[in-house]
## 1
Amino acid sequence: MSKFDIDEQKIRDMLSQITVDSSKLAEQVKSRLYEDRADMPARHRKRWTRSTIAAIVMSFVLVASATAAVLGNFDWFIERFNPDFGKIVEPVEVYSEDQGIRMEVIGAQKYDNQAIVYLSLQDITGQNRLKELTDYGAGFSVKMNPQAQETVTGVDEFTSANAMWKEKILYFDEDTNTIYYEFNITAAPETPLAEPLELRKFLIYFDEKAYNDEPISVSLTGIKSAETTPLVKVQFWSSWSGGNMPDDLSSYAEALMPGHFADMPHGKKDQWVSNIGIIDGKLHVQIGEIFNEVFGPSTPELSLKDPDGNSISPDYSFVFLGDEKNDLLNLEKNDYADGIDRYNEFVFPISTEDLSEYKLSYTGSVSTGVKGSWKVSVNLSDSNQSTRTWTNDISVDGHLFEYITLSPLGLQVIGTYQGEECLVGDMSIGVETVDGIIPLEAVGGSEKPDKHTFNSSWNTKAPLDITKAKAIIINGTRIPIK
């Protein structure tokens, strides 16, 4: 252990014995945090030691933590970040912990199919695994109304397919390794949000490292014909063409025999150079990887560099799967779940047998994260009095708006359309209020072409005061709010 680590531990031990009277601390801290120091004269100071700096930082964290405890996490959050929808959300402050990560819902509000949620992720292990751009949306789902599940086939109790959300990172606190988010959630009308509001997360991405044209440490000197395995059409999982792929997949009679030729530039064991060889006068490079891994290397992209540094793209590539016995899967008889390894085989055109001066390079990324189970149930007060709904059939440019709901978070519409194409997503939507017209942003929606029905949603940038709303304006058509 370094001297700095020893000193730091001593400081931690001393601070742990300190008791703080927080009854008067909050106001003092708040006033000092905003105290103007611009007029303070500059003075010559001695250089601070690392131990002194550590003590100051730790003291600040202690004071900040005490302030948050006095104010309450919700009050502290609203005062600290002043979020767009802070005036309409309720304090929640409930959390779920797994894999050393805490997911906390700080505040929220729900209006039928829409919800605004303020939440945080924190690494409580001290490993600082979360990064500033950690993506929260991946592995996130919302519970739908159980009654809606009976009428909509193929919809899970928790689903993301019938819900949309806009994720916004408010702040990343490096000291506590905490990320604060704003989530604006909109569910489809046929699968409204459940009561109480329930959120679940099963994946948390930490970071992603990108590789661009990274050299692969293999020599192409003396590369010759390699051992191959027969490949039939039903064994192809997918393919990509650079313009030189034959139309008949059955013409691909051979692929390289899977193996382990070399490591990839990132050095991860779940992706490797499986084999390299010449087949029918073309250079084949096969990349193997563990199939269906959530984190780790992305699907690779390869290029070949000639002696002058020019990049040569593959003519085409194809993918096939292997099972636990390393036998190739027949996709007419086997399920994708039977796949253990996936092989990406790249085929390069070559005009020379001497490849000693040619180099292979790799482009891709490697992600890190953790699987777990985080679930939070949020009880919120009834907000129906803050919504307006009407069912008048209103015709706008060949679209019939049959069901309209307006809430402080935005507008939702269900209707039908004429013609071959639904154009509701391209319409301009605004809300006329006593203070002027507030434009809305399209969130998304869905349509059923066979029935010519649609649903669509638009959000506000800030809470909409329903009591001030006078009309909705759709493509210039004014719809009064009664």
Note: The mean pLDDT is 80.
## 2
Amino acid sequence: MKAISALPGAICIVFFSCSSEKNSDAVHLPDYEFVIVDSLQVDHLGSLALLDIHEEKELFLFSSGDDNRLFLTNQSGEIISTFEEPGDSPTAFGSKTGSGTFVGDQIVIMGRTRFAIYDLDFNFQHGFKLGYPSSGMFYLSFDHLQPAIQNGKAKLVAFTGGAQTEASSNQPEYYSEYNTFDLIDLDSGTFTPVLPFHPKSRFLSGKAFDFIAPIYQVNGNEVSFVHKRDSLLYTYNLDQPDSFTATRIPFDDFIMKEGYPMKGKIDYETPSGREGMIQSYFKVGDLNLVIYYSGIKLENMPDMTLEIDSLVKVFGKLNPEKWLVLDDAGHSSAPRATYDKFRPSRVDSEGNLWAMQNTYILDEEPDLVTYYKLKLVQK
């Protein structure tokens, strides 16, 4: 029932690039559009990240972007339960909310080094620590903790910010030892690394890359994911070790960085273009929704000495956010500009997208936090 997106307050990594890829042979699907069918409004001043949806009980799990509080609301937007404990409390998960999910009638929250399990009233049940020293980035309010089924048993698929390896990302061992996810057994609190890089992955080119992060969705034993700075869609069945597939995403244009030499570091001094980046990925029924930026070639980069407001506007024109729909065979709809009114952040088990209202286009901050319920429909 889950999907990934970057939310305001989340940690996003952006850097520059100098290579590009373009697919002019894409087979186009029909055009699609978003239709608003309902909305959810919560009486809260500030930002709320929607962490998960419990469809059966019609519950919504939110984290506050201003502090470390968690909220549980009903479908009317009424807050029915709140968690607000100091990060160093023995019944807390830490000082920052990474990700959260429902597992049956329990709530699992991932902090930097600790996981905590609560009932639906945020009464502490038990907790466990990350199964290895934390490394890499810590992402706030991303969908990096999702329930899964492996061989009939309930587990969690997690991305904790990096691989289970002591090697740094400019070492060859990092890529040979890389695991994309951790499979967590909730009964024992054990972490099992799963999914190395696919043989077709650009991250096995012999170059080094920083800030490698998947955007993924789990449906039962099926895991679908992309990497933020990659042009492949990956699928994997947790019950079938030989099921790992990679399909090319037919972007209109997507500029990718070639990487930097092993045992070296990124050159930030030499002028370069802006790399393409996948912003969000959702599995909507049998379709895949990808929201992305194509990037900017070096020769088209704007004057970086412009005032910040002017520079933001120029970047918006040169590198607009776009979206496309593709099937599992890689056939795609034509890319379209994203909607200004909202930003998709979750998809539920019925294939409905839930999108946060874009408050940046409003003249003043609203008194209510609004999420729209959307349908992705063929035009």
Note: The helical segments are 172-176, 308-318.
## 3
Amino acid sequence: MTAVTARPVPRITAFATAVLVFGAVNAPTVLYAGWRADLGFSATVQTLVYAMYVGGLIPGLLLTGRWLRRRGPRTLMVLAAAASVVAASALALAGGVGTLLGARFVQGLALGVVMTASSAALYGADPPRARSFTALLVTLTALVGACLGPVMAGVLADLSGGTALPMLAAAATVAAAVVLLLVHGRSPALPATPAPTGPSTGPLILGETEARTGIPDASAVPPPALEPVPALVPRPHLMISLTAGASWAMVGLYQSVGPGLIGSALGVESLAVLGGIVAAMLAVAGIVQVSARNVAVQRGRRLGLSALLVGICGFAAMLLTGQMWWALIAVMGAGVGHGFTFLSATQEIGESQRRHPLKAAASMSRYFTIAYLCLAAFTLLLGIVGDLWSMVPAAVTLLGILAAGCVAMLFSRNATASPRS
């Protein structure tokens, strides 16, 4: 009798679910100022509400790898998306800071589960695709969702004059993702095919753990020897993670108090326009990541950190002068910088995993944890210093500290690999 394999989640279903959940989680980007005006809280509380999403995201990322071994990606995505619907609905009806904090934590936790589970589903989808193509899809889920969320929320907020309609719309879109998972959450069953036992010139054959979760394991058949050996040895894990964290800190600025700072500096009141500015920065980052996948790691890191410095200086100059052209420089610099920096750091952590496959899952979890902690810490510190001092001087000062960190990262170098390493 022919054995039948477990049916994977269709690629389009996993991709759409991740995009919609990302969009709902990023919809509040342009709504914080409205909640702050309605509920009367401080800049510290505003950044704390934003940071609570990161507080939920990190345990979601860390724990889902274990949960995937007991529950498949589809089940976890259904549960997480349903929780995201509840959280978005709570944000739409929020009458106090406690509701905002709790709902954002749930949104972050749900996003962490969906990020990990959808990545596993994309890597395990049938028919299999090249790992580089799948990695691109994983990247695009975050970028497309992060771009659509603020823009759509801004448009609906301008039309309705409040924060309820944008979040109700976000809840409705994620509810549609739950329906999609329930209706189109499994591929047709296919006969199991035995794995070849000898050398192969085809794609990498997944090991038992990776076929189920998308996380590499040591049982996978190694790729053909024809694959070129990377010329660089990755830097220490902490240094790689802090490099990614530097660019994510800038993203955190744009996603938290950034729209309010930009609106005040440029005299812009339309939330749709402010959401478009945030989306433009992330879109530039996405274009860079798509087009620069073959750029060498060291060169990508240098280009990224240099562009990030331009973006930091542009943002500070915009706050001090109120000139639109500085805002354009800031958006382009931050977008190009994040694209190159995050891409090169992720490539570098991937090479580290290739060299130490047994530590791959733990290494990736720590990598994202440190990067997102940098994002949360920078934005929360900005809110605290802004309340103690003033938002513009606080932003300029902390941007200067971030710029110094970028300069330090520019001098971190990879070791040269031996030809047969």
Note: The chain has a mean pLDDT of 84.
## 4
Amino acid sequence: MAKHSGGKVGKAGKILSDPKTSKTQKSKAGKTLSNHKKKMH
């Protein structure tokens, strides 16, 4: 999978890969990424 570095999608990826983030943040980030995948890929 291509690595996104900028914008909302990049931020979501960073949140998901960081072990210190909370479950609620991860769930939001996961939604952002899956929506992006559905639309763009």
Note: The chain has one domain: 7-40.
